[in-house]
Design goal:
single chain, about 130 residues, 5 helices
Length: about 130
């Protein structure tokens, strides 16, 4: 039951943020996602597409019972994306000159670590003892 709750939570988070990255212009994303300034529009859209697909992959195979191995693979994909997010925020914190900017980057790191841990929990559970 806990894995289902975590899967639904992650699917909602990554599905939602993936749609935002896919539908909003890069310039509008700068307001809330400072890291997008250093990325090309194609990179932002690609990350958004991967997050949306992973969000779908966390739920759809598990709910339909078709290709259920895709659920833990989607969770592993999110682990990889979150590792990338941690690296991006670490670089941002290292280069930040204003204390407020450094605080924002540290908050980004913490968020990525929490999401990484939740995705890793789903991957472990669905590959291992609680596979579908």
């Amino acid at each position: 039951m806990v894995l289902w709750i975590v899967q639904i939570l992650l699917a909602a988070i990554f599905g939602g943020i993936g749609v935002v990255k896919l539908t909003q212009p890069k310039e509008k994303l700068h307001e809330t996602m400072g890291w997008t300034k250093a990325a090309t529009p194609i990179q932002v859209k690609a990350i958004g597409a991967l997050e949306l697909l992973a969000g779908i992959g966390l739920l759809l195979p598990a709910l339909t019972g078709i290709a259920t191995v895709l659920t833990p693979l989607a969770a592993l994909g999110l682990v990889i994306i979150m590792i990338g997010g941690i690296v991006v925020h670490l670089n941002g914190a290292r280069r930040a000159t204003a204390p407020e900017r450094r605080t924002v980057e540290i908050q980004g790191i913490v968020t990525c670590v929490v999401l990484l841990a939740l995705a890793a929990l789903v991957a472990w559970g669905r590959f291992g003892p609680y596979s579908l």
